[in-house]
Amino acid sequence: MARREFEMSEADLETILDASKPTSGIMAGGYLSASPQENANLAWATLGRKMGFKSMTVKPVAGRGDKVFTAEPDAEADDA
Length: 80
Fold this sequence. Notes:
This protein is 39% helix and 18% strand. It is built from 3 helices and 5 strands, in the order E-H-E-E-H-E-E-H. Helix 1 runs antiparallel to helix 2.
């Protein structure tokens, strides 16, 4: 599938960066809290649903800053 260029907002970038920060490993009810990687993956998945791309296909665009990236469009989002 063809890749497309996307640009997230400053607020979206902050959400991604915040999700990627280390978390303390707190066990609650027998479950360990999510890792920074899991939190970042969830933030990218949320942004992908919002902007219409497959979150696991994101790649940065060299020289274009932190908000610009390419990804495969999500055909299901186009059908919605």
